[in-house]
Amino acid sequence: MKPKIALQLWSIQEDCQKDFEAALRQVKEFGYDGVEFAGYYGKTADDIRAMLSDLDLDVAGSHVPYESLKNQLEATLDFEEAIGNRRIIVPYASFSTFAEWQEFMTNMQEIAKAVTNRGMKFYYHNHAHEFTEVEGTDLLDLLTHEIDQLLLEVDLYWLAHAGQDVRAWVEAHKSSIGLFHMKDKQQEPEESTELGSGVLPLKEYTQLAKKLQLPWLIVEQEAFQKYEPLEAAKINVKQLRAIIEEVYE
């Protein structure tokens, strides 16, 4: 089975702020199968569900702040359930001491229970600092051992940015990986760019996704050099679709 392609909506956040439904309509027209949310721009769960149904867009997942899950767990999960989301993803965590990371892991364990009890899957999305914030500790690896049923949404850009051997790291953690964030990297300045315009081996990453039988590949772009975000999103889905066709032929 070929993976579906979703857009992490953080990539087009300004367009979402201007007119959320119009932005989603564009995403559908570009050829995306679904979206990964990063906020709801004041829309109700009923609003979101109606827009998705009208546009025939699936929910790949949602980036939900750790604080929302910690402080308003049941209400937050009620909302996610109501929009049809089955994947709850903590997008970021950073702490100044290892003791704070340990407290985070304890709280995440309780959140994981609540999420999985509802039949949802629970993920953590990485950046690069998880490899450096506690000296000598791969915090991503530790999270997978300390939190039952936690999956990883592996951002391959940040993994490469952290100096990791991406293929080796993914292979070592394959049992914990449930999603990939696909983005490319330009060298000068070092930042994300359109898929196919940078230096990362996207075909190799897609081959890893095939091996892991990932259901979604999720496009994200955070920096823009030549194109506006919506234009970049259109380029990205076309590029990734072509790579998937080649790898999964």
TrEMBL record:
One of its GO terms (molecular function) is isomerase activity. InterPro entries: IolE/XylAMocC-like (IPR050312), Xyl_isomerase-like_sf (IPR036237), Xyl_isomerase-like_TIM-brl (IPR013022). Pfam families: AP_endonuc_2. Residues 24-241 form the Xylose isomerase-like TIM barrel domain. The keyword Cytoplasm does not apply. Keywords: Isomerase. PANTHER family: HYDROXYPYRUVATE ISOMERASE, INOSOSE DEHYDRATASE. This is Sugar phosphate isomerase.
